Amino acid sequence: MIGIVFLVVAAFWLYNAVYTVQPDELAIELRFGKPKQEVSEPGLHFHLWPIETVEKAVTAEKLVTIGQSQSNNATLMLTGDQNLVRVAFSVAYQVSDPRIYLFRMVNPDDTLTQVAESAMREVVGRRPAQDIFRDDRQGIADQVRDIIQSSIDSYGAGLAINAISIEDAAPPPSVADAFDEVQRAEQDEDRFVEEANRDSNQVLGRSRGEAAQIREEAAGYKARVVQEAEGEAQRFISIYDEYAKAPEVTRRRLYLETMEGVLRESNKTILGTEGGQSVVPYLPLNELQRRAPAPANAPAGQGGNN
To answer: Which positions fall inside the Band domain (predicted)?
Structure first.
Protein backbone atom coordinates (compact mmCIF):
# COMPACT_ATOMS: atom_id res chain seq x y z
CA MET A 1 0.00 0.00 0.00
CA ILE A 2 2.84 2.36 0.80
CA GLY A 3 4.36 1.70 -2.62
CA ILE A 4 1.04 2.27 -4.38
CA VAL A 5 0.53 5.53 -2.49
CA PHE A 6 4.08 6.57 -3.38
CA LEU A 7 3.52 5.81 -7.03
CA VAL A 8 0.26 7.76 -7.03
CA VAL A 9 1.90 10.72 -5.35
CA ALA A 10 4.85 10.55 -7.76
CA ALA A 11 2.54 10.40 -10.78
CA PHE A 12 0.52 13.34 -9.48
CA TRP A 13 3.70 15.34 -8.85
CA LEU A 14 5.11 14.46 -12.25
CA TYR A 15 1.82 15.43 -13.89
CA ASN A 16 2.04 18.89 -12.33
CA ALA A 17 5.82 19.24 -12.82
CA VAL A 18 5.71 18.67 -16.57
CA TYR A 19 4.01 21.30 -18.70
CA THR A 20 3.64 22.02 -22.39
CA VAL A 21 4.02 25.37 -24.12
CA GLN A 22 1.97 25.65 -27.30
CA PRO A 23 3.41 27.09 -30.55
CA ASP A 24 1.63 30.42 -30.02
CA GLU A 25 2.69 30.76 -26.38
CA LEU A 26 5.64 31.72 -24.23
CA ALA A 27 5.99 30.74 -20.56
CA ILE A 28 7.73 32.14 -17.49
CA GLU A 29 8.57 29.95 -14.50
CA LEU A 30 8.19 31.39 -11.00
CA ARG A 31 10.09 30.11 -7.99
CA PHE A 32 8.37 31.05 -4.74
CA GLY A 33 6.41 33.63 -6.77
CA LYS A 34 9.48 35.32 -8.25
CA PRO A 35 9.78 35.06 -12.06
CA LYS A 36 12.92 33.57 -13.53
CA GLN A 37 14.95 35.26 -16.23
CA GLU A 38 14.54 32.39 -18.66
CA VAL A 39 11.63 32.29 -21.11
CA SER A 40 10.24 28.87 -21.98
CA GLU A 41 9.85 28.36 -25.69
CA PRO A 42 7.13 26.16 -27.27
CA GLY A 43 7.60 22.51 -26.37
CA LEU A 44 7.70 20.17 -23.32
CA HIS A 45 9.25 21.54 -20.10
CA PHE A 46 9.85 20.49 -16.48
CA HIS A 47 9.76 22.54 -13.29
CA LEU A 48 9.88 21.82 -9.55
CA TRP A 49 6.28 21.85 -8.60
CA PRO A 50 4.93 23.13 -6.19
CA ILE A 51 7.80 25.46 -5.31
CA GLU A 52 7.78 26.56 -8.95
CA THR A 53 4.77 27.60 -10.98
CA VAL A 54 4.27 28.60 -14.63
CA GLU A 55 2.57 31.58 -16.20
CA LYS A 56 1.84 31.51 -19.93
CA ALA A 57 1.30 34.37 -22.37
CA VAL A 58 -0.32 33.97 -25.78
CA THR A 59 1.92 35.57 -28.42
CA ALA A 60 -0.49 35.23 -31.35
CA GLU A 61 -1.87 38.45 -32.75
CA LYS A 62 -5.01 39.69 -31.02
CA LEU A 63 -7.67 42.04 -32.31
CA VAL A 64 -9.74 44.40 -30.21
CA THR A 65 -12.55 46.47 -31.72
CA ILE A 66 -13.62 49.78 -30.21
CA GLY A 67 -16.79 51.73 -30.98
CA GLN A 68 -18.98 49.08 -32.60
CA SER A 69 -21.97 49.74 -30.34
CA GLN A 70 -24.12 52.45 -31.89
CA SER A 71 -25.99 53.03 -28.64
CA ASN A 72 -22.85 53.90 -26.66
CA ASN A 73 -22.29 57.64 -26.53
CA ALA A 74 -18.68 57.00 -25.52
CA THR A 75 -17.88 56.35 -29.17
CA LEU A 76 -18.86 59.92 -30.14
CA MET A 77 -15.82 62.12 -30.76
CA LEU A 78 -15.46 65.84 -31.37
CA THR A 79 -13.46 66.78 -34.45
CA GLY A 80 -11.20 69.77 -34.92
CA ASP A 81 -13.91 71.68 -36.82
CA GLN A 82 -16.47 71.17 -34.02
CA ASN A 83 -18.37 68.25 -35.58
CA LEU A 84 -19.48 65.06 -33.87
CA VAL A 85 -18.43 61.76 -35.42
CA ARG A 86 -18.88 58.15 -34.36
CA VAL A 87 -15.70 56.16 -35.00
CA ALA A 88 -15.31 52.37 -34.94
CA PHE A 89 -11.78 51.02 -35.26
CA SER A 90 -9.72 47.90 -34.55
CA VAL A 91 -6.34 47.48 -32.90
CA ALA A 92 -4.16 44.51 -33.87
CA TYR A 93 -1.50 43.76 -31.27
CA GLN A 94 0.56 40.97 -29.77
CA VAL A 95 2.77 40.28 -26.77
CA SER A 96 6.33 41.45 -27.34
CA ASP A 97 7.78 40.76 -23.85
CA PRO A 98 5.99 38.08 -21.79
CA ARG A 99 7.79 39.03 -18.54
CA ILE A 100 6.54 42.61 -18.69
CA TYR A 101 3.11 41.58 -19.98
CA LEU A 102 2.53 39.04 -17.20
CA PHE A 103 4.00 40.80 -14.18
CA ARG A 104 4.23 44.58 -14.75
CA MET A 105 0.53 45.47 -15.12
CA VAL A 106 -2.66 43.99 -13.69
CA ASN A 107 -4.66 43.94 -16.93
CA PRO A 108 -2.68 45.20 -19.95
CA ASP A 109 -5.43 44.30 -22.46
CA ASP A 110 -7.99 46.59 -20.79
CA THR A 111 -5.33 49.28 -20.50
CA LEU A 112 -4.67 49.00 -24.22
CA THR A 113 -8.37 49.50 -24.98
CA GLN A 114 -8.53 52.66 -22.89
CA VAL A 115 -5.29 54.02 -24.35
CA ALA A 116 -6.48 53.30 -27.91
CA GLU A 117 -9.76 55.16 -27.40
CA SER A 118 -7.96 58.12 -25.81
CA ALA A 119 -5.42 58.25 -28.67
CA MET A 120 -8.17 58.19 -31.30
CA ARG A 121 -9.99 61.05 -29.54
CA GLU A 122 -6.77 63.04 -29.44
CA VAL A 123 -6.03 62.65 -33.15
CA VAL A 124 -9.63 63.16 -34.31
CA GLY A 125 -9.87 66.27 -32.12
CA ARG A 126 -7.02 67.85 -34.11
CA ARG A 127 -8.41 67.00 -37.55
CA PRO A 128 -11.41 68.22 -39.56
CA ALA A 129 -14.30 65.80 -39.94
CA GLN A 130 -13.57 65.36 -43.64
CA ASP A 131 -10.23 63.68 -42.84
CA ILE A 132 -11.83 60.92 -40.78
CA PHE A 133 -14.70 60.52 -43.23
CA ARG A 134 -12.72 60.22 -46.44
CA ASP A 135 -9.60 62.28 -47.04
CA ASP A 136 -6.91 60.96 -44.67
CA ARG A 137 -8.01 57.85 -42.78
CA GLN A 138 -4.66 56.14 -43.20
CA GLY A 139 -2.80 59.17 -41.86
CA ILE A 140 -5.06 59.23 -38.79
CA ALA A 141 -4.56 55.48 -38.26
CA ASP A 142 -0.77 55.88 -38.42
CA GLN A 143 -0.82 58.72 -35.89
CA VAL A 144 -3.05 56.75 -33.52
CA ARG A 145 -0.74 53.72 -33.76
CA ASP A 146 2.31 55.83 -32.85
CA ILE A 147 0.54 57.40 -29.87
CA ILE A 148 -0.71 54.04 -28.57
CA GLN A 149 2.70 52.43 -28.90
CA SER A 150 4.41 55.31 -27.13
CA SER A 151 1.89 55.27 -24.27
CA ILE A 152 1.97 51.48 -23.86
CA ASP A 153 5.77 51.50 -23.79
CA SER A 154 5.77 54.17 -21.09
CA TYR A 155 3.35 52.07 -19.01
CA GLY A 156 5.42 48.93 -19.50
CA ALA A 157 2.68 46.69 -20.90
CA GLY A 158 4.93 44.48 -23.05
CA LEU A 159 2.70 44.84 -26.11
CA ALA A 160 3.48 45.67 -29.74
CA ILE A 161 0.86 47.47 -31.85
CA ASN A 162 0.84 45.98 -35.35
CA ALA A 163 -1.90 47.97 -37.07
CA ILE A 164 -4.85 50.32 -36.62
CA SER A 165 -7.83 49.88 -38.93
CA ILE A 166 -10.61 52.48 -39.05
CA GLU A 167 -13.63 50.36 -39.90
CA ASP A 168 -16.34 53.01 -39.85
CA ALA A 169 -16.72 56.74 -39.36
CA ALA A 170 -20.17 58.28 -39.50
CA PRO A 171 -22.04 61.23 -38.03
CA PRO A 172 -24.63 60.67 -35.28
CA PRO A 173 -28.04 59.48 -36.58
CA SER A 174 -29.69 62.78 -35.66
CA VAL A 175 -27.49 64.74 -38.12
CA ALA A 176 -26.72 61.98 -40.62
CA ASP A 177 -29.02 63.45 -43.29
CA ALA A 178 -27.32 66.84 -43.10
CA PHE A 179 -23.91 65.23 -43.40
CA ASP A 180 -25.07 63.15 -46.37
CA GLU A 181 -26.32 66.30 -48.07
CA VAL A 182 -22.95 67.96 -47.53
CA GLN A 183 -21.21 64.88 -48.94
CA ARG A 184 -23.42 64.94 -52.02
CA ALA A 185 -22.76 68.65 -52.50
CA GLU A 186 -19.01 68.08 -52.28
CA GLN A 187 -19.24 65.18 -54.75
CA ASP A 188 -21.22 67.38 -57.14
CA GLU A 189 -18.60 70.08 -56.76
CA ASP A 190 -15.83 67.62 -57.57
CA ARG A 191 -17.80 66.35 -60.57
CA PHE A 192 -18.39 69.88 -61.88
CA VAL A 193 -14.72 70.71 -61.47
CA GLU A 194 -13.70 67.55 -63.34
CA GLU A 195 -16.16 68.29 -66.16
CA ALA A 196 -14.92 71.88 -66.37
CA ASN A 197 -11.31 70.69 -66.49
CA ARG A 198 -12.19 68.15 -69.17
CA ASP A 199 -13.97 70.79 -71.29
CA SER A 200 -11.09 73.19 -70.73
CA ASN A 201 -8.59 70.59 -71.86
CA GLN A 202 -10.66 69.85 -74.97
CA VAL A 203 -10.97 73.54 -75.88
CA LEU A 204 -7.29 74.17 -75.19
CA GLY A 205 -6.29 71.14 -77.23
CA ARG A 206 -8.47 72.18 -80.16
CA SER A 207 -7.26 75.79 -79.95
CA ARG A 208 -3.62 74.71 -79.78
CA GLY A 209 -4.15 72.45 -82.78
CA GLU A 210 -5.74 75.28 -84.76
CA ALA A 211 -2.96 77.64 -83.69
CA ALA A 212 -0.34 75.13 -84.81
CA GLN A 213 -2.15 74.70 -88.14
CA ILE A 214 -2.32 78.49 -88.65
CA ARG A 215 1.38 78.80 -87.82
CA GLU A 216 2.22 76.06 -90.30
CA GLU A 217 0.07 77.67 -93.00
CA ALA A 218 1.65 81.07 -92.29
CA ALA A 219 5.11 79.55 -92.45
CA GLY A 220 4.22 77.85 -95.75
CA TYR A 221 2.76 81.07 -97.17
CA LYS A 222 5.83 82.99 -96.07
CA ALA A 223 8.14 80.46 -97.68
CA ARG A 224 6.10 80.50 -100.91
CA VAL A 225 6.01 84.32 -101.11
CA VAL A 226 9.72 84.56 -100.37
CA GLN A 227 10.55 81.95 -102.98
CA GLU A 228 8.31 83.65 -105.56
CA ALA A 229 9.87 87.02 -104.79
CA GLU A 230 13.35 85.55 -105.04
CA GLY A 231 12.37 83.87 -108.33
CA GLU A 232 10.97 87.13 -109.74
CA ALA A 233 14.08 88.93 -108.62
CA GLN A 234 16.30 86.36 -110.32
CA ARG A 235 14.13 86.57 -113.45
CA PHE A 236 14.37 90.37 -113.45
CA ILE A 237 18.12 90.20 -112.98
CA SER A 238 18.47 87.72 -115.84
CA ILE A 239 16.28 89.90 -118.09
CA TYR A 240 18.27 92.95 -117.11
CA ASP A 241 21.51 91.17 -117.94
CA GLU A 242 20.13 90.27 -121.39
CA TYR A 243 18.83 93.80 -121.81
CA ALA A 244 22.26 95.20 -121.00
CA LYS A 245 23.76 93.02 -123.74
CA ALA A 246 21.14 93.82 -126.44
CA PRO A 247 18.76 96.61 -125.40
CA GLU A 248 16.82 96.88 -128.65
CA VAL A 249 16.19 93.15 -129.01
CA THR A 250 15.22 92.77 -125.38
CA ARG A 251 12.91 95.77 -125.57
CA ARG A 252 11.23 94.34 -128.63
CA ARG A 253 10.80 90.93 -127.03
CA LEU A 254 9.30 92.42 -123.89
CA TYR A 255 6.89 94.48 -125.99
CA LEU A 256 5.74 91.44 -127.93
CA GLU A 257 5.30 89.32 -124.80
CA THR A 258 3.33 92.09 -123.15
CA MET A 259 1.07 92.61 -126.15
CA GLU A 260 0.55 88.87 -126.40
CA GLY A 261 -0.66 88.81 -122.83
CA VAL A 262 -2.94 91.82 -123.32
CA LEU A 263 -4.48 90.78 -126.64
CA ARG A 264 -4.77 87.07 -125.94
CA GLU A 265 -8.37 87.29 -124.76
CA SER A 266 -9.51 90.47 -126.54
CA ASN A 267 -12.04 90.35 -129.39
CA LYS A 268 -9.81 92.02 -131.98
CA THR A 269 -8.72 91.30 -135.49
CA ILE A 270 -5.21 92.32 -136.58
CA LEU A 271 -4.94 93.24 -140.30
CA GLY A 272 -1.55 93.57 -141.89
CA THR A 273 -0.77 96.35 -144.40
CA GLU A 274 2.25 97.21 -146.39
CA GLY A 275 3.14 100.04 -144.10
CA GLY A 276 3.00 97.83 -141.04
CA GLN A 277 0.30 96.51 -138.74
CA SER A 278 -2.81 98.21 -137.57
CA VAL A 279 -5.57 97.22 -135.13
CA VAL A 280 -9.18 97.95 -136.07
CA PRO A 281 -12.45 97.04 -134.38
CA TYR A 282 -14.10 93.94 -135.77
CA LEU A 283 -17.81 93.19 -135.69
CA PRO A 284 -18.36 89.39 -135.48
CA LEU A 285 -21.52 89.15 -137.64
CA ASN A 286 -21.39 85.37 -137.86
CA GLU A 287 -21.25 85.08 -134.04
CA LEU A 288 -24.17 87.48 -133.67
CA GLN A 289 -26.27 85.52 -136.16
CA ARG A 290 -25.49 82.23 -134.35
CA ARG A 291 -26.49 83.65 -131.02
CA ALA A 292 -29.71 85.40 -132.25
CA PRO A 293 -32.85 83.36 -131.31
CA ALA A 294 -34.99 82.11 -134.22
CA PRO A 295 -38.51 83.65 -134.63
CA ALA A 296 -41.31 81.68 -133.02
CA ASN A 297 -43.27 81.33 -136.35
CA ALA A 298 -40.23 80.55 -138.49
CA PRO A 299 -40.52 77.28 -140.40
CA ALA A 300 -38.23 74.45 -139.33
CA GLY A 301 -34.93 74.25 -141.11
CA GLN A 302 -34.65 77.97 -141.76
CA GLY A 303 -31.76 79.76 -140.10
CA GLY A 304 -31.12 83.39 -139.40
CA ASN A 305 -28.64 83.97 -142.28
CA ASN A 306 -30.01 86.46 -144.83
So the answer is: 16-183
